[in-house]
Amino acid sequence: MDSVFEILRGEHRRILEAADLALQVASRLERGETVPTGTLSALSNFFSYAVHRNHRDKEDTLLFPRLQDKGLKQGAGCVSALMTEHQEGAEAFARMLAAAEAYEYGDRDAIRAWIDGARRYAAMLASHIGQEEQVLFAEAERLLTPADQQELSDALADAEGRARFVGIDEVLEDLERVRQTLTATQLPRR
Ligand SMILES: [Fe+2]
Ligand SMILES: [Fe+2]
User: Fold this and answer.
1) pLDDT tens, residue by residue, 115-145
2) Which residues are placed with Cβ below 5 angstroms of ligand 2, an ion?
3) What would the pLDDT profile of 147-178 be if each residue is shown by its tens digit?
4) How far, in Å, from the CA of 29 to the mean position of ligand 1?
5) What is the C-alpha to C-alpha distance for residues 58 and 86, in angstroms, rounded to an integer?
6) Cα–Cα distance for residue pair 67/145, rounded to 1 Å
7) CATH class of the domain at 4-184
């Protein structure tokens, strides 16, 4: 079984790939190109399930409380600052989601709000994940004993099982379909 930090770093990679895809979509929409039907909703579903339910739950309810119990010191990358960023990320995502829904219901002007929202959200994700990996995980690896890490990775596996129950596999498949269609329809850069 992967270690707790391998699991979380793997999820981070997947989240950053989706954020990168959102940035590509934003650039294409800004150039006036169309994107395949369902692109914005596939991205919204991914961020909604994979980030704000699955990954965030693992950190908020499993990793962070355990680190606080272990006496993680306040400072750069501290848990309370990261939890505040989770909340700010959720608010930024909610604005992007509202714009995506308005656009899909026919409000063409909402696309500007989505483009700006996607760029802001992708930047927040990159900064937050960088902070977690470079500061928090390094400290956590030092603080948590092998037994703590084993217990946590078991708990993460249980959480993953619950996420599969609510349909994360379909969300990932949809996003992969969108990624492939976008790649296949990529216009040559001038
Ligand atoms: Fe986080
Ligand atoms: Fe994270």
Assistant:
1) 999 999 999 999 999 999 998 998 898 889 9
2) 132
3) 999 999 999 988 888 877 778 889 999 999 99
4) 28
5) 12
6) 11
7) mainly alpha
Longest dimension (CA), the chain: 55
Two tokens, residue 23: 């940035």
Residue 122 near residue 23 (C-beta atoms within 8 A):
yes
Find out whether 11 and 160 touch, Cβ atoms under 8 Å.
no
* Residue 136: burial class (beta carbons within 10 Å; 0-12, 13-18, 19+): buried
Judged by its nearest atom, the ligand closest to the C-alpha of residue 137 is 2
What is the value of pTM for the model shown? 0.91
Backbone angles phi, psi at 186, to 5 degrees: -60, 125
**Average pLDDT rounded to a whole number, residues 60-65:** 93
Query: How far is residue 77's CA from residue 140's CA, in Å, rounded to a whole number?
Result: 11
Q: Which amino acid is at 152?
A: L
187 CA to middle of ligand 2, Å?
33
In this structure, are residues 125 and 19 in contact, taking their beta carbons and an 8 Å threshold? yes
pLDDT of the residue at 76: 44
